[in-house]
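Appendix B. Chain record.
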Amino acid sequence: QVQVVESGGGLVQPGGSLRLSCVASGTRFNLAAMAWYRQAPGKQRELVASITSGGRADYADSVKGRFTISRNNAVTTVYLQMNSLKPEDTAVYYCKVVDVYQYWGQGTQVTVSP
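Structure tokens predicted for this chain:
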């Protein structure tokens, strides 16, 4: 059974930092591509960052230079380090695992507010 569990969200002031974690079990994690998406109220879900099984990372233009995606295959975890956070980064952040199929987590809320 595949499980994808995000954690690390919370309330942070503008300019602050958060690190999100996503633990995936029941998949061939070392072969899977991983991605972080986010969805703000009233908006479509959008891709924030992705990382291939080989470690190549890509980012949405809106987060380049501020967010860093990384993975640790030994603990089947992908991370999203978010720095210089802005109010427009407020959203529910979701982790996606792409193995043979796609699997989503339940999301973690990130709120950036004074």
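Further analysis of this model is presented in Appendix C.
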